[in-house]
Design goal:
The chain has 308 residues and is mainly α. The chain contains twelve helices and no strands. The longest helix is centred in the last third of the chain and has 52 residues. The protein is elongated and about 100 Å long.
């Protein structure tokens, strides 16, 4: 019995030692140097060692670093709420731009999100005091060199300006203008006609010519009045591509006759010039010859009188 107990105790010690060694090997794996050689594994650090305690203390301080600042440097709850609203509206507007990137319809579908973003940004960037006589301008706009809110807003505002979306909206920028709505209606008429005769391009070119011609005229007027935005420009480019390249249609220009008339006039202008010059020179010669003849005839009469 004593021998059996000793054998069992020895086996348990060996198993425990093997388990501890396995755990150490799995936790502290050897590191690989740049040349491919293995570095010696780092020895385990005692949980009560000063190095581990200092490391844990630094981690604790890094997490609670904001709590060490004075209360007058902290961003108040009102400004934090304004920052949260700005983030939500920024993401919503950016998603709208991406969703309507192709075909381009950002002006007619994203003006609500843009106006909301402008509203919250104006409230943050202004010096107007909010609840508790608090202004978020300094704490959110000028607190660091990056000026993140200004940079983010300026990029999206630049996209809106380059797209010319204000030109397709009304004066208050809260709905589409009448010119834009009229163009969209004319565009739908042409596209519906294209779809109706899509299987027969010859009939399409004949039956859809009038609606397409009116659409071109309307686009030309809007271009002169500077009431175009990227939505209208992109829609017109796609429509023209369908008409000319896909369907192979052509639209005769009305200014062809005046161009031919002017070209013909310029062609015959040198002939008219030389002809008028020739007639003018002949008339001048006649005027010069007539006095000479008169003078010669008078001198002849004087000679005859002398002889008589």
């Amino acid at each position: 019995m004593g021998l059996l107990i000793k054998y069992t105790f020895l086996t348990s010690c060996l198993f425990v030692g093997w388990s501890v060694t396995l755990v150490k090997c799995s936790v502290y794996q050897p590191e690989v140097r740049g040349d491919g050689a293995l570095n010696a594994p780092s020895p385990p650090v005692d949980s009560e060692s000063p190095a581990l305690q200092a490391r844990s203390l630094g981690y604790f301080y890094s997490l609670s670093l904001s709590a060490t600042f004075p209360d007058d440097l902290e961003v108040n709850a009102y400004c934090i709420e304004m920052l949260r609203i700005f983030g939500q509206r920024y993401v919503a507007y950016a998603n709208c731009l991406v969703s309507y990137a192709r075909p381009v319809k950002i002006c007619q579908n994203c003006y609500t999100g843009f106006n909301s973003l402008v509203e919250i940004y104006t409230n943050i960037s202004s010096d107007q005091l909010g609840p508790g006589n608090v202004s978020c301008h300094d704490s959110l706009m000028r607190s660091d060199r990056l000026m993140l809110l200004y940079t983010l807003f300026s990029k999206l505002d630049e996209i809106w300006t380059i797209a010319g979306c204000k030109q397709c909206l009304n004066e208050n920028q809260d709905s589409l203008s009448n010119n834009t709505l009229h163009f969209m209606a004319s565009l739908n008429l042409s596209l519906n006609c294209f779809e109706k005769f899509q299987g027969n391009h010859s009939e399409l070119c004949k039956d859809c010519k009038l609606s397409y011609k009116r659409l071109n005229e309307l686009y030309g007027k809007m271009e002169e009045n500077q009431t175009l935005c990227i939505d209208i420009e992109d829609a017109m480019n796609m429509t023209r591509r369908l008409w000319s390249k896909i369907f192979g249609c052509s639209l005769p220009r009305e200014e062809t006759v005046p161009v031919i008339a002017v070209s013909s006039f310029m062609l015959f202008l040198p002939i008219i010039f030389y002809l008028s010059s020739f007639l003018h020179s002949e008339q001048k010669k006649r005027k010069l010859i007539h006095p000479n003849r008169a003078k010669s005839s008078s001198s002849l009469m004087n000679i005859q009188d002398k002889f008589n």
